[in-house]
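seq:
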Amino acid sequence: MPWSKQHRDKTIIHDVSGIFKAGEVSAIMGASGAGKTTLLNLIACRVSLQSGSVMANNMTYNYENFGNFANYVMQADILLGTLTVRETLMFAANLKLNATE
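struct:
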């Protein structure tokens, strides 16, 4: 998925590619300000690209169909304080999938 994200006159992300395999947990790590949130926002189509495209399974996609194959929980997401992390994830999954455990 080669693409660029520019902030004013500065290129923040350029020519990035990666593989995220189904059924595996992946982590994006880096120092504060390294571009992790920008990368995730681009992958989730939450911000516009200046050039290039984002692809999954060799196909371009958009904000509307991103949820068909992936999800992104934002850093400032609203969580219920009475639920454990597992309960919160199960709650969100049940809303999305409308399925049992």
